[in-house]
Amino acid sequence: MDLTSGPKSTDEWSSPQAIVDLCAKRWGPFDLDAAADETNAQAPAWINRFEDGLTRPWNGRVWLNPPWCRRKRMPIGPWIDKSVEEALSGRVALVCALVPASVSTRWWHRLAANATRILLLKGRLRYGDGGSAKFGSCVALLCPFGGPARIDVWDPRAEIAATKGAQNGGATS
Questions:
Q1: Where are the alpha helices (DSSP H) in 43-133?
Q2: Pairing of strands 150-154, 32-33
Q3: On the CB side of 90, how many CA atoms lie within 13 Å of its CA?
Q4: Using 50, 70 and 90 to split pLDDT, how confident is the model at 67?
Q5: Smallest Cα–Cα separation from 92: which of 64, 68, 120, 65?
Q6: Residue 110, pLDDT above cutoff 90
Q7: Rounded CA separation 147/142 (Å)
Q8: Plot region of 126 (φ>0 → left; ψ -120 to 50 → alpha; else → beta)
């Protein structure tokens, strides 16, 4: 399974479907995608850019791949603040956020202090027409009981390969 998705000509990247599927398998299906549209939503309900996921309430199990772009001054910090606020308020059961692993930033430290788990993704995600992200990524889990986070390394490609091997009677390719 490829970890690639999303058109390369935009600053809005669709979540790699394999990552979303693995997260949903581990932590249950998502009820809300807090930053999506009808073409890339990862849950039955979603909030699009015109509705603004930063101002609307979230509920249930939330998938978040926040829009952000340094060069266009679209910061990721407000999305982290909203995730922490929603999780700690108890309004959501879980926020599962796919974000850059940017450990030198203020928002990262706020995330790590409040997340229950952070999975650093081995390698780099691939988006668009096969080009890889220019940064490492992670999946952060935020729950009502807060952090600080347990941090692990996760190799989704190995997990996908193992699943395929099990489906093929133990043979791996």
A1: 77-89, 106-114
A2: unpaired
A3: 1
A4: confident
A5: 64
A6: yes
A7: 8
A8: beta
